[in-house]
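Reviewer comment 2.1 asked that we show a complete input and output for one of the modelled complexes. We chose the zinc ion case, as it is the one discussed in the main text.
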Amino acid sequence: MTDARSVPPLDAGAETPGAAALPAAFARLADIGHSPGDGVMRLTASATDGAARRALAAWMEGAGARMAHDGIGNQFACFDWAGAGAPWVLAGSHLDAQPNGGRFDGVLGVVAAGCAALTLAAERAAGRLAPRANLAVVNWTNEEGARFQPSLIGSTVFAGALPLAAGLACRDRNGVSLGEALRTIGYGSPAGVVPPHPRAYVELHVEQGRRLEATAGSIGAVEGTWAARKMQVSWEGRAAHTGPTPMAERRDALLAAARAIAGFEDAVARSWPELHRSAARLEVEPNSPNVVVRRATVWFELRHPDRARLIAAGDAVREVFEQAASATGTRLEIASDATRAAASMDAGLVARVEATARACGLLPLRMASVAGHDAVALQNAGIPSALVLVASTGGIAHHPDEFTAPADMQAGLAVLTALLRGLITDAAGPGRA
Ligand SMILES: [Zn+2]
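Response of the prediction step:
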C-alpha cells in the first residue's frame, strides 16, 4: 500500500511552469467554439473540434512533444523521456463538448495534463527528474456521445473493448460516419507512433456534483462509478392527415412515446425511486404539424451503483413500452438496450491519489462518480486508471454556467503533477505503489 513517503516532495512555495501556464492555456482551449451565454459548441469532429485539436498540438509541440494520433482520432502528445521499450503513463481527458456545453468538462483534464508535462519537462531539463516511463498527454475522441453514440468511443477503441471499424462506422443524426467526419478535420488516418497500453492512466475532471464544493480544500478520489442502462426505443405508427383522418384510424407514434415517457417515470419512481433516470432525446418523423407522427424514437437511461436494480427496473419499463404500443396501435422497436457495468477504479491508484492530495495540503474524499469517463472505460478494459475530481460550482454540468474556481483548478493540477511525477519515476507499475 501507499504511504506518504512514496510521494515525492513538492517544490513548496515555488510556482511551477505548469501552474503559471494553466490560466492562459485553459482559456485558449476552452474558448474555442465558446460564445458567452450560449456555452460551447464543439461536437466531435466538427470544425471547432478540429481547431481545438490543432491548438493542443501546437501548444504541446512547442513544449517539445511529438504528436501522434490513432485510427479513431485519439491525440497523443508524447514525451519519450525514458526511451523506446520503456513503459508509458498517460494523462488527459477530452476536448469534445455537449451542445451548449460548459468550458470545463474535459478541457480541464487535457490542459492540466499538458501543464503537468511542462513542469515535469522543466524538472527533467534541470536534472532533477529521471523518468523511468514515458509520458503522453491524451485527448480522447467523442467522450461525450453527443454527436456519435455510444459515448467514450475513442478510449474504448484504444483499450481494445470496441473494434476500430465499429467505432468509425457510428453515424450522427445526418448519417455522417465518425470516420468521414474525422477525415474532414484531418484525423481520418493514423499518424506517428501511438503509445502502447500504459502502466497507468490518470484523468483530472470536474466533479459535476456538489459534494466537493461543500468541503473547502477537498479533492475527489474516485473509487468507482455507477452502472448505467441505456435504451433507444422507437414506436412505428402510420403517417396520416391530422385533419380528416378519423380518430379510430390513427396510429400516432408520438402519442405512444408520450405515454411511454410518463409511464417510465411512474414505474421507476414507484418501485425504484433511488435510480437516476431520464428520457432526454426525442426524434419525430416526419415532424410536420399536419402529419400524424409516423415514427418516434426516445433515448432512455437508468443509473445506479447496483446493476441488479437496473436489470429489474429496465425489464419493468420494457413492459411499459409494450403497453404504450398496444394502446396506440403502434409497433415497438428496441434498437439498443445496453448495460454498462459499475466500475471499481484501481485500488492502488486510489490510495496514491489520497496520499498525494494530503502531501499537497488537500483533503481527499473517496467518492463514486455517477457519470462515465474515459478513465472508467480504460479501467474496465484492464488499464490501471485513476480519476481525480475538483469542485464544480453548484454542481452545474453540461450547461453554459459550468464553473470551477481557479484555486480548485490549481489544486487539481498540483495533485495531477505530483501523481505523474511519482508514476513516471517508479521502478514498478501502480500495483506496487
Ligand atoms: Zn467529461
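Confidence is low (pLDDT under 50) at residues 1-13. We note this here for comparison with the apo prediction described in Section 3.2.
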